[in-house]
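Dear Dr. K.,

Following up on our conversation at the group meeting, I've run the structure prediction for IclR family transcriptional regulator from Haloechinothrix salitolerans. I'm pasting the input sequence below exactly as I used it, so you can double-check it against your construct before we proceed with anything downstream. Let me know if the numbering doesn't match what you have in your notebook.
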Amino acid sequence: MTSPKQTGGGGGGVQSLRRAFELLEGLADTGGEASLSELAATTGLPMPTIHRLIRTLVELGYVRQNANRHYALGSRLIRLGEQASKQFGTWARPHLTELVDTTGETANLAVLERDEMVYVAQVPSKHSMRMFTEVGRRLLPHGTGVGKAVLSQLPPDEVRALLRRTGMPAYTPHTHTDPEEFISHLADIATQGYALDESEQELGVRCIAVPLTGCPVPAAVSVSGPEGRLTPEIAERIAPTAIEIGARLSKSIAEQERGG
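The predicted structure tokens came back this morning:
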């Protein structure tokens, strides 16, 4: 989060716009809901400024006030987020297509949104038997390759807080359900540069996932297929390709964000 002291010059209108976005990001950082005092602690903004801006954001529908007097992200942000996700997927499609052409398996792009992994783009395998994780599907991160790849890039305390909010339900007998063992598993993923989903979300499915870096939201790309076809040996062989394509996609997204 950028502190108010770092936002720099500009007129009052520009400063108000900056601070309004700091409030929205502050709400996102606290899990989507916070009290005014929590927002003050998160953003460093003066309480009178928070009162003034939050009233305007509530009137516009970008923030809502709950019965417990906490504030939460509003429904009008959903449309903006959906359109941003679609654009994100458009940037990724050529790289996902390259992954499919190289590996022969289905390629996906997913982002971390409100403690869930959301699939925002996919290029299907050319095989008649292929994986169908539809665009728009939301899954808890601990049970997916893309989720584990993303969480491997976060500080352990942030991961622990997320797991406390979501729990760790077992989707299959292979799903990780112990927080501390999972944290250790994420450290191994960070070291090797990719995550494996070994039938942890769906029996009979193996997935290789690579975290993206320098993106506006935590994200990962993956290659998934039947474990009989995407064997451990093949997964290990194609992992460097997935890492390399993921790195190029990260660079492309960063350039798009800069307007390059």
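Two things stood out to me. The beta strands are 33-34, 63-65, 71-73, 106-113, 116-123, 138-139, 195-198, 205-211, 219-226. The longest strand covers residues 106-113.

Best regards,
J.T.
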